[in-house]
Amino acid sequence: MVWSSLRAMTLGIGGVTIDCADPRTLAEFWTAALGYAVVTDFEGEFLFLAPPDKPQGAAPYIGLQRVAEPRQGKNRAHLDFNTEDRPAEVARLVELGASVLGEHVVPGLTWTVLADPEGNEFCVGSPNG
User: What's this model's pTM, rounded to 2 decimal places?
Assistant: First the structure.
């Protein structure tokens, strides 16, 4: 396949959805963690979280979707966040209800693996350690 022969795609990332048992309760963690707000609540079954000061679609949303089954095993996909002060940000997230699962270091990057209050994994990384 030749790259120049590919047509331009109109597909864009709207957001990421996290399966959970209780979207409204989990929204308390994620809104505090990200500074997002609940912008749409579909009867507690599905919530859209987004920055309250930006027009819809200007930033990726976080969706929280109720599912009946509990999470099992490692997430197949997860959110990655970055920050200049990883230790302080990790401490803040733990105060909000996250759990630290591990820390990894490779030349030029350090990241901490955390879990939200329902066990969904995410990472916080920093190029400075």
Answer: 0.86
